[in-house]
Amino acid sequence: MGISSEAFLQVLSAPATRLYHKDFCYGNSNVFVPDRDRRGRGCRFTQSRKVNFKNFTGIFASIRPDGMNHKKKKINNLEGLTCKCGRAEGVSEAAAEELRKTLIGGMNNSDVSCFESAQHLKSENGGVFSTSDLGTPGTIHSNLNGVKDSFEDEAWDLLRASMVYYCGNPIGTIAANDPNDSSILNYDQVFIRDFIPSGLAFLLKGEFDIVRNFILHTLQLQSWEKTMDCHSPGQGLMPASFKVRTVPLDGDDSATEDVLDPDFGEAAIGRVAPVDSGLWWIILLRAYGKCSGDRSVQERVDVQTGIKMILKLCLADGFDMFPTLLVTDGSCMIDRRMGIHGHPLEIQALFYSALLSAREMLAPEDGSTDLITALNNRLVALPFHIREYYWTDMKKLNEIYRYKTEEYSYDAVNKFNIYPDQIPPWLVEWMPNKGGYLIGNLQPAHMDFRFFSLGNLWSIISSLATTEQSHAILDLIEAKWAELVADMPLKICYPALDGEEWRIVTGSDPKNTPWSYHNGGSWPTLLWQLTVACIKMNRPGIAENAVKIAERRLSRDKWPEYYDTRRGRLIGKQARLFQTWSIAGYLVAKLLLAKPEAANILVNLEDTELVNAFSCMLSSNPRRKRSRMGVKKSYII
Ligand code: GLC
């Protein structure tokens, strides 16, 4: 059965055959490149340079795209505070129009409709990013006005009010914008993961500049010098968040400059590693290209290098036995100790989506054959591992219940030596007859049976789960509506850790008490992921019902970060109000429900080449005895 290894090799050895202009960067001469790693790679103008300033290093915007240094500008008025460096893309109106025509010429039908309707929306908005509308650097640009027609209008005003500017250009949105909050912590920063729904809302509205700027500026931060107690994390890491600071110009007290100041986890509570940032960055880059029709960003030399650096970091060899990504606790949306170290589902689903997206965008290049091979190998092995070992439903539960243990052999059924007593009592009652889900984590002798929403939803969106499994996950969400959605969509995970388990697993974390925050809290931002998953499976009604429930309270409660209690009835104990991704998540859900075909910019469809490779690899029997001959077999793709 399946295809021969030769055919296999042939099919998958074809690299990503995408249009690629090696010299694009030259033609498009205003390119951001950090001085350190990418100097000399062919981009003519650098707009940034890295310098030490007092106690921190930052990227200073001080050189104009035309090469003129404007550092010594005096502050005469408010305008003087705004540095005058150019935009990430300094094209003239005429050139932009030319570009638009070229893009439409080169797009397929669905792209055209996305691009054109976006342009239409943009003109309806009166072009939000006209130069007259630029804000003061590093500050929030407030646009709140009068009575609101609807929740959506209010949400748009709030989203715009959360925009952050760098050198006069929109570059991201801050995490929360609550004027009455006295303990801001780092919620005044632009978080990479938090910006994803903001970026998507802007894309769907036809406002592409902010997303483009975000992609290019965060790329600059990637090769940042980052250290924690004399240790430098791997190259390719993207920061968890960054802040725009306006600082006095070196040697000139009367002038200022904007500085991007990233946090790679060195300052974050618990020093958690932002593993998801780079994965989200790739996913957003693809969505930007698909929605705007502008593939020039992903084709840029520096962007291609950025993608490869993330991949190299993720695909590096280690001691691990599994194709899943091994990470420390708190390396994703749940960025505190919650017992999700190891191989958490959320990271695996984002990883798979990022691999597929990167494969689509990577240009064929002699030097990257090994990387493409590693990427393709992982794309074959990862879905098999997750579909086979993470899946649980009534049938699988019964299988685990009857597992034999201590099987030493190549063909063990209970490969991870799971003791049946590990099945938590709640699950036996909770598992619906129809439906199932992917468990939260898998390690030797350990299955984390908690249901994690983001991981399951993104497994649907990325096709990491099979079609059958994807429907079953939505069946489970419907069957367990009273627990997972209840009074506010959506529970981050179910159930909460309680008592001794809470004490041991969270380290007695007072923020993660049962049914609060990451420990079974309800997060409105998850609405957008629920919506994409439901649209992909052609079941938008589920998301529509969830949105209706959220609308009852979100605006009235001032758009909280999360809700507490079993049914999500109370605004979270320490929840921020006017939390940007709650606002943006709601907007993306509404925009997508109104235009479901736009969800394509996020969805990864199952790749038949990979499926064939997969069946070939398994020869239809995942539990077949491993032959000695097969030990060395590698799948060169
Ligand atoms: C909290 C969340 C994290 C989010 C951050 C900013 O730390 O756990 O996922 O990125 O707040 O909103």
Automatic annotation (TrEMBL):
Recorded hits in Pfam families, A to Z, give: Glyco_hydro_100
**Family that this chain belongs to:** Belongs to the glycosyl hydrolase 100 family.
Source organism per UniProt: Daucus carota subsp. sativus (Carrot)
Its Gene Ontology cellular component terms are:
chloroplast
Coiled coil residues, start to end: none
**Record's catalysed reaction(s):** Hydrolysis of terminal non-reducing beta-D-fructofuranoside residues in beta-D-fructofuranosides
Name listed for the protein in its UniProt record: Alkaline/neutral invertase
Keywords of this entry:
Carbohydrate metabolism, Glycosidase, Hydrolase
Q: Name one GO molecular function term.
A: sucrose alpha-glucosidase activity
Glycoprotein is among the record's keywords: no
